[in-house]
Amino acid sequence: MTQALDTGTLGRAGRDYYEINKTHVNMTRGATGSRTARFEALPKSIAIDLDRTALIVVDMQNEFCSPDGWLASLGADVSGSTAPVRAINSLTSALRPRKVPIIWVNWGVRSDRLNLSPGTQLTFNPSGCGAGLGDLTKRGSDPGAPSYNILQKGSWGAEIIKELDVAATDVFVDKHRLSGFWDTPLDSILRNLSVRTLLICGINADQCVYSTLVDANFHGYDTVMIEDGVATTSPQFCLDATFYNVRFCLGFTAKSADVVSGLPSI
Question: How far apart are CA 1 and CA 27, in angstroms?
Fold first, then answer.
């Protein structure tokens, strides 16, 4: 990315703005230090300021990724749900030393479910007669398996899968809707960290990841979905449509290797 990005400006020059041309978007807002990352993305290559960037990982939890979890119990094929692990671990290992915040946004519902509407509970209990959000269930199909409450904060199902590298210094946000922004402290946390650009990973790409990215865009954040850092149990056309919509009207998509290779030296 050696081409000067000086052919156009979007936003308020000197304050909140992008510098753009036909192939590149500079989202550093005038930052000139050594903390600029430049990498290939779609629909254009981008430059971001690491001092204003965070990585958000959505819903990489036992409930959605484990063959013993709730999603698998409904008949969903979760075999591909751990596909983003390598990309996510690559990003966290590269970004932590560079002091970029790592934020895990996960379902963690209240035990009394007082903030869950019937419409929200319907998705998890479509017949109204089964086990839904917060209900007691068995782990897997073994009758002797331990019980837990579905996606309740602190439960086995709500835990981040063990394949991911999680650090005590990371930030953890509980949510109770598809979006990580709705009725959570995520926006306040990001603003207190002076974050403007979000690299977003997790599952399902077309559901909770997408909803979080949409709300991030609506809140004014720059959004970059990591293509190999997301997966879904939905049909392939859902993932294709998600990438299309992100690139067309919500931000950018990029591959984890391109992001890592574009990072400045420590």
Answer: 13
Query: pLDDT grade, residue 240 (50/70/90)?
Result: very high
> Mean pLDDT across the stretch 30-38?
89
Strand ranges for the chain from DSSP E: 8-11, 17-20, 24-26, 36-39, 45-49, 53-58, 102-107, 136-138, 147-149, 171-175, 197-203, 222-231, 252-254
Compute the distance between CA of residue 81 and CA of residue 92 in angstroms, rounded to an integer: 18
Structure tokens at 178: 């598809």
- At 1 the pLDDT is 44
DSSP 55: E
Question: What integer is the mean pLDDT of 186-194?
Answer: 98
Contact of 113 with 133, CB cutoff 8 Å: yes
Task: Cite the active site residues.
Answer: 59, 175, 208
Residue 17 to residue 193: CA distance in whole angstroms: 19
Per-position DSSP letters for 213-251, written without gaps between them: HHHHHHTT-EEEEEEEEEE-SS-HHHHHHHHHHIIIII-
How many Å apart are CA 177 and CA 146, to the nearest integer? 26
Tens-place pLDDT, residues 121-149: 998 888 888 888 999 988 887 888 889 99
Sorted by where each starts, the structural domains of the chain and their CATH numbers stand as: 8-261 (3.40.50.850)
